[in-house]
Amino acid sequence: xxxxxxxxxxxxxxxxxxxxxxxxxxxxxxxxxxxxxxxxxxxxxxxxxxxxxxxxxxxxxxxxxxxxxxxxxxxxxxxxxxxxxxxxxxxxxxxxxxxxxxxxxxxxxxxxxxxxxxxxxxxxxxxxxxxxxxxxxxxxxxxxxxxxxxxxxxxxxxxxxxxxxxxxxxxxxxxxxxxxxxxxxxxxxxxxxxxxxxxxxxxxxxxxxxxxxxxxxxxxxxxxxxxxxxxxxxxxxxxxxxxxxxxxxxxxxxxxxxxxxxxxxxxxxxxxxxxxxxxxxxxxxxxxxxxxxxxxxxxxxxxxxxxxxxxxxxxxxxxxxxxxxxxxxxxxxxxxxxxxxxxxx
Amino acid sequence: xxxxxxxxxxxxxxxxxxxxxxxxxxxxxxxxxxxxxxxxxxxxxxxxxxxxxxxxxxxxxxxxxxxxxxxxxxxxxxxxxxxxxxxxxxxxxxxxxxxxxxxxxxxxxxxxxxxxxxxxxxxxxxxxxxxxxxxxxxxxxxxxxxxxxxxxxxxxxxxxxxxxxxxxxxxxxxxxxxxxxxxxxxxxxxxxxxxxxxxxxxxxxxxxxxxxxxxxxxxxxxxxxxxxxxxxxxxxxxxxxxxxxxxxxxxxxxxxxxxxxxxxxxxxxxxxxxxxxxxxxxxxxxxxxxxxxxxx
Lengths: 345, 296
Description:
The structure holds two protein chains of two kinds. By secondary structure, chain A is an all-alpha fold.
């Protein structure tokens, strides 16, 4: 039973090149994206209540993380259920360097990113032969090894009790008193990865990623080195996820292995882009912007009265979207595009 | 020392055979449909709740509850296949990955809503006595699990090797299109396989219920072990699952005694990675399974 390899992202319609397209397009900044960014900035400036500010900055962080996952999972087709390992390595590295060695997180973040990048590259390198479910399972196993390691290497990671960052606000410690500063930081993270994604989309490298995802044999016979592309895509994705992990640690000021390296976290990294639209820049952002506030608000409003209800709905939504709208929210957005097929002959 | 080691190996073999029973449904489904059911652990969780409800409210014990649980899981498998698996078979591979992932989240949280996060278990049968043979002893529940596991492996092997259904399944695995042209109802083979895989999880749940507690996220712990066993044994190989399960059982029981329980877990995930890297086709699997035209 040959499984067809049709792409999940919607085919790009032919529209004439305009300077500022209305809707998101590959490799271009559109009016839609600028409006969305303006909305994000306005939300930071607005006097929201504290609880909503929490939701807002978590949404930005998750947007960035979903985009980071999407570089490997969406563009290169390297579906990983182990990104929590990179997230955890980032969170732990910057925290351990800060707490034990008094190295500022501004440097620690990049040390963590380097470790995660190397780890991601190595993992992809040694799993180079694996495809499909085998690759997915190997990433899942790798992140479990990291989690159990963190749980047991108590002298370094504090084991199950976790690590706490002293809540002394200062720029050097990357601990801030105001949530606005954190929100700017998280939005900055999101925008940076968004721009990286856009640059990839424009570049030759971006097309290489799609080529090895869609047909590796054809791509390699056209002179692309699949191994290099796969390894570098995972490396970049791991590195960026790790930065998000460090930011998370700096915001929550506490981390333990069950929360920052859990399989559930890995699944979440994968599900947000899948719901939003894999292999598009706007998709993961839409996924994170729709799902994160919804689940956070449902969790706080429903509370214990209906433990699990929001996740049960979430699970059902995932099934329906994957089966009937596999392009996700980005494909829905694409439908809004006016059809301009009839060109004057 | 020697007796201790022997005892550890005996316990490892017994518990490993139960892990194998839990994984055989997964490997059967993978072997025929070439999909990984990420909700497998939640199927197990649901069946364990079924067995628990049977002992609590119907006056059955965990084993007799199988009479109700196994057909119920077969039916549940049929429904899941109709609604989720079958529509995603002709779509890119990641659709079924994410859809079963969504199903796993859904089932876990429905269980949380209905049954709460409490741990439930069944009272020990036979007064919790142990069965001794020579210098070794074993819980009777483990011995029953071992016997069921061996029986299931041999019956499944017999079905696949000799019956018409088994031949049809093998033909479908080898070349789905050719099988269809020969008049084999391939979609129905898929349905039967998926439902049987689910029924086997139901049987595994009934043998596990006297040994483990059930709670909404119990599946996650076991499904990771099941993945390890299925890959170790060779994805799609029934005997491989038994062998893989026993290996994991022995490895777990030895390493948790001689090293530390926590590192035991780390040991078998590392083992899993090593097998994936150096022999992705597993102990008894077909060569090249890992590259079988599965597009991510």
